[in-house]
Amino acid sequence: MGISAPLQAGTERGPASCRRIAAGPGRAGGALWGRQQQEGSRRSPARLGDAVSSPGAISSGSLRASSPARRPSAGTRSDAGTGTDTRRRGGKGRRRRPAPEGREEPRRAARKEEAQPQRSRKRRAAAPAPPPPMEAAAGPLLPRGRPQAVRLRRRRSVLDGAGRGAAAQPGAGKREGGRGGGGRGRGAGPSPAGGASAGAAGGTSALTALAVAVRVLNCALVRSSFVPDEYWQALEVAHRLAFGYGHLTWEWAQRLRGSAYPLLLAAIYKALQLLGKDDVQLLIWVPRLVQAVLAAFADVKLYLLVRHLENAETAKYVYFCQLCSWFTWYSCTRTLTNTMETLLTIFALYYYPIKGSKTGSSCKYLTLIALAIVIRPTAAIPWIPLVFSHFLREQRKADLILHNCIPVGLVTLGISLITDRVFFGEWVLVQLNFLKFNVLQNLGTFYGSHPWHWYLTQGLPIILGTHLPFFIHGCVLAPKRYRIFLMAVIWTVLVYSTLSHKEFRFIYPVLPFCMFFCGFSLKHLKAWKKSAASFLLVSNLLPALYTGLIHQRGTLDVMSHVQELCKDSNQSQAFVFIMMPCHSTPFYSHVHCPLKMRFLQCPPDLTGNESYIDEADVFYSNPLGWLNKEFYNDTLLPSHLIFFSVLEQEISAFLALKGYEKTATIFHTHVPQGRVGSHIYLYRRGLK
């Protein structure tokens, strides 16, 4: 390009000039040739660089159009009319070469603009300027004279799939302004990680809503009684705290129970009272609904734990097993300290720092364990092997003890001491008293004893039900790092087996560990997976509905008849005597009026008297004689008697003599045994 322009200019000047240039090494021709060579060497690299940076500038014509306009140097003027440059040499102008095509248009536009009126000039000044020659040749996407970096296509991440279902944001697809127009859209959707987080949050919210709905339905379909402690050690104590009347059993007199759980229920009662909603039905159902919601959150935590440790499919089967468990259905909505102990165990398990866990937190799981121990001291038993394993794996053992164990222990111990000081009126460590009574003195045998193998042959197999073969299969298949969970189950069963008094609810806290292994078993089944899931659902649904709606429901149904006495105008004259095994029915927490009531007492002997017999045993040894002796005067007779059907024949003479009439018959169980009959009878004394 640096050579062709002078040759063209020389041709226009005439044949003589051409002959001098072609002649070669003449004086004038040599000087001109040298200047042209230098000028061409200076211009060619810039033009070549522009051509390389612009994909559109390939031909020589494009190169001339895309080269930047050079300002005339000193001693050079441009002839706008002819489009040629004139250089002054010794006072004489010489025609050099025509200006590039790209320079002529801006000059003509400038002259035309000067001829326009002032208003038109201002209007044009507001309009965008025409693109420079480089942009005209290479397009508007590339800047002038600057090579663009290659934009690599970002590979789609696996996490992008999580956000595909998200709704498009307003303004999606609009591109940001800027050089090259390659910016991200201003209204574009979230990043892949953000989309995955949003999808996971939405899935967790839906799962939580489902779990709450299931557990609320669970609560509504459990209308039977399990053990007396769900009323006498929780609701009855809370009713006394909130309303000033209620019966405290002998455990509270001996400082064997902590007040933390009843205080929680008393707060619910007090809130209902302040809202003017302290109806007896709300007092019965609201604490159970709160327990159901907590159980739902625990189910979700169990699902999330397995999803973090394994995958969503395994978590789905563990969650399915948890929902299908008939004993969990039967127990998780009851106001039992064992239930709260189990829920806190699941919450703590979510934060337990097992190998591969993404949610591990020493402070959080130790705090939850401490709260469970405050509510029920036996909550420490399943966690002994787990905490010991954590301590062995922990590299900074001193930090674990000094920064987590000791602070958490001191804070929770202080809370327990303060709450019990307020409740009992004196400083007392109920956890120590509980340990002495149930372990060291083994006084729990007063309520029955069982052989050492009872949990292995009856307790654990019954609460597992049809999950038992899946539990065994899952223990074989589960990875090695989950053996610590199996160790917690075995350890807990063995420790409780050393105690004489045994109950199903004592080993309820290990049931979530068992569901963990049952889910592993279901996940690894191939051809029989759907059949096994259907079998688990049906085989657990039947006992769950039967035990929740039919078995042992009479002791709750009879309280509705007692509630009617509170609406009677003769309430002050009513006197209800419950002649059943002690603590068979609820008390003031299910009546909510200061009605005169009495039941057969059965506290254990704490004095060491070997000939001690409680009131209930004395009554059942000779019911008729006891009644005649106790109510020797008609003014002492109760207005209403409640007892099991097995007692009717023995006291029929007393009923006829004192003028009692049967007013209600309530079904209780299909499996009567001992002092417990199939039905409950309600007798009322007639007026003579």
Uncertain residue segments: 1-94, 133-145, 156-194
Count of helix runs = 28
The whole-angstrom Rg is 46 Å
Binned, the helix content reads 55-70%
Global shape:
globular
* Annotation, overall tally of beta strands: 8
Overall mean pLDDT: 79
Strand content: 5-15%
SSE topology sketch:
Layout: H1 4-13, H2 15-23, H3 27-53, H4 60-66, E1 76-79, E2 84-89, E3 92-98, H5 101-115, H6 118-126, H7 133-138, H8 192-220, H9 229-243, H10 250-253, H11 260-274, H12 280-309, H13 312-324, H14 326-331, H15 337-350, H16 362-375, H17 380-393, H18 397-424, H19 430-440, H20 454-464, H21 468-477, H22 483-497, H23 511-524, H24 529-549, H25 554-566, E4 575-579, E5 596-599, H26 615-621, H27 623-630, E6 640-644, H28 652-658, E7 660-667, E8 679-685
Parallel strand pairs: 4-5, 4-6
Antiparallel strand pairs: 1-2, 2-3, 6-8, 7-8
Family: Belongs to the glycosyltransferase 22 family.
Keywords: Endoplasmic reticulum, Glycosyltransferase, Membrane, Transferase, Transmembrane, Transmembrane helix
Transmembrane segments: 365-388, 400-419, 452-472, 484-500, 506-525, 532-550
